[in-house]
Automatic annotation (TrEMBL):
It is found in: Cell membrane. Its main location: membrane. One of its GO terms (molecular function) is kinase activity. InterPro entries: DAGK, DAGK_sf, UDPK. The chain crosses the membrane at residues 34-51, 99-121. It is a multi-pass membrane protein. It comes from the Bacteria. PANTHER family: DIACYLGLYCEROL KINASE. Pfam families: DAGK_prokar (PF01219). This is Diacylglycerol kinase family protein. Belongs to the bacterial diacylglycerol kinase family. Keywords: ATP-binding, Cell membrane, Kinase, Lipid biosynthesis, Lipid metabolism, Membrane, Nucleotide-binding, Phospholipid biosynthesis, Phospholipid metabolism, Transferase, Transmembrane, Transmembrane helix. Gene3D superfamilies: 1.10.287.3610.
Length: 127
């Protein structure tokens, strides 16, 4: 039986978290869309807190969009590495990954409208 198992796993987990954080930082620094989505999410969360609207649906929608944007960045990097020349399948991979972000963003807009508009309407004196 290994006595140092848990300490080793914790160190490995910490190392993996560092790699994941590096991926997030790379996306933030290289992808304008990711930066826009991060700050749109922060604004939506601040608005939800200010309006005393539920935070969980907004947080989940933001997490979905940002996660898919990270996957999109990964797909773009792998496609550029594997297929620097134009190829129809490279186009399918990049366009489908971008489509996933678009679908999640549309869903996030619907969530934001459903969660934020009613309390905003009240604050504005409409109800
Ligand atoms: N190797 C490739 N073969 C075929 N089509 C490609 C290839 N690389 C990119 N494309 C296509 O060209 C168009 C533009 O792609 P490009 O990667 O320049 O921009 P993008 O997908 O908007 O990503 P970025 O965030 O880097 O601007 C997309 O339709 C994409 O699918």
């Amino acid at each position: 039986m290994r006595s140092d198992g848990s300490a080793l796993n914790l160190r490995r987990w910490w190392r993996s978290t560092g790699f994941a954080w590096a991926g997030i930082l790379y996306s933030y620094n290289s992808q304008a869309n990711f930066r826009i989505e991060v700050w749109a999410g922060v604004l939506a969360l601040i608005a939800a807190a200010f309006l005393r609207a539920p935070l969980a649906p907004i947080a989940l929608a933001c997490a979905l969009v940002l996660s898919l944007e990270l996957v999109n960045t990964a797909v773009e990097a792998v496609v550029d590495l594997a297929s620097p020349e134009l190829h129809p399948l490279a186009k399918v991979a990049k366009d489908a990954a971008a489509g996933a972000v678009l679908v999640a963003s549309a869903g996030a807009l619907v969530v934001a409208a459903v969660v934020l508009l009613p309390p905003l309407w009240k604050v504005a004196g409409g109800g």
